[in-house]
From TrEMBL:
Single GO term (MF): metal ion binding
Swiss-Prot/TrEMBL keywords: Isomerase, Pyruvate
Organism expressing this protein natively: Rhodobacter aestuarii
Full protein name: Maleylpyruvate isomerase
InterPro entries: DinB/YfiT-like, MDMPI_metal-binding
Keyword Isomerase part of the UniProt annotation: yes
Taxonomic placement: Bacteria, Pseudomonadati, Pseudomonadota, Alphaproteobacteria, Rhodobacterales
One Pfam family hit: MDMPI_N
Residue intervals of the Mycothiol-dependent maleylpyruvate isomerase metal-binding domain: 36-167
Length: 188
C-alpha cells in the first residue's frame, strides 16, 4: 500500500512539473491536517465575530478576544520564523512573539488583526510545505521551550482549537477532531 502511494505521488509530481512545490514525505501528515482543520475552524469563528466584539472578554480569564487572536497569530509567526532560520532560509535574529509584541498586536484595528491572523497562517503553511525532508527531524527553541520541528503542527493545532474555544462565540469541545478530544488539550 505504501509503495502504491509513493508511486502515485511520484507520478503526480512528474505530471505537474518542476514549478510545483510539495510537502516532504517525512512531514507529519496527520498533525498537519489537524493544524489545517484548526486554521479553518478558527477562521470561521473569527469571521463570525463583529469588529466590536473583538474587544470583549474571551473565555480565557483576563484576555480579550483580540488578545486571543493576536496570540494565535503570533504563535504562527514565531514557528514560521524559527523554522525558516533552522532551515537556513533566514537569519535567526528576531523575537516578535514576546509579551510586548502580543500587547501591541492586541491593539490593532479589527481589520489589521484579522489580516495578521490570515497572513501568519499562510506564511506558516508555506514554510511547512517548503521544509526539506531532513529538517523535520531537527529541533527549534520556541518561546515555550525546545520542540522537535515535527511536533510544531500538533502544537499549532492545539493552539488553534483552544483559541477557537476561547473566542467564546459558539465553538464547542465536541467540534474538536477525535484525535484532540482523545488526547485532551493542554491547560492554559
Amino acid at each position: 500500500m505504501a509503495g502504491d502511494l509513493d508511486m502515485a505521488r511520484a507520478a503526480l509530481i512528474a505530471r505537474q512539473g518542476t514549478g510545483a512545490r510539495y510537502q516532504a514525505a517525512t512531514a507529519p501528515a496527520r498533525a498537519l491536517e489537524l493544524a489545517r482543520l484548526g486554521t479553518a475552524y478558527f477562521a470561521r469563528r473569527l469571521n463570525g465575530l463583529e469588529d466590536g466584539a473583538l474587544g470583549q472578554a474571551s473565555a480565557r480569564a483576563g484576555w480579550s478576544r483580540a488578545r486571543v487572536v493576536a496570540s494565535v497569530a503570533l504563535q504562527a509567526r514565531e514557528i514560521a520564523q524559527l523554522l525558516e532560520a533552522a532551515s537556513g532560509q533566514r537569519p535567526e535574529d528576531w523575537a516578535e512573539t514576546d509579551l510586548a509584541a502580543l500587547e501591541l498586536a492586541e491593539t490593532l484595528p479589527p481589520r489589521a488583526l484579522r489580516h495578521l491572523f490570515a497572513h501568519a497562517a499562510v506564511h506558516l503553511e508555506v514554510v511547512w510545505r517548503d521544509l526539506p525532508a531532513d529538517a523535520w527531524a531537527e529541533t527549534v527553541q520556541l518561546s515555550t521551550g525546545a520542540v522537535g520541528i515535527a511536533q510544531t503542527p500538533k502544537l499549532r493545532a492545539e493552539v488553534l482549537w483552544l483559541g477557537a474555544l476561547d473566542l467564546a462565540n459558539g465553538a464547542r469541545l465536541r467540534d474538536l477532531p477525535k484525535d484532540l478530544q482523545a488526547q485532551g488539550l493542554p491547560e492554559h
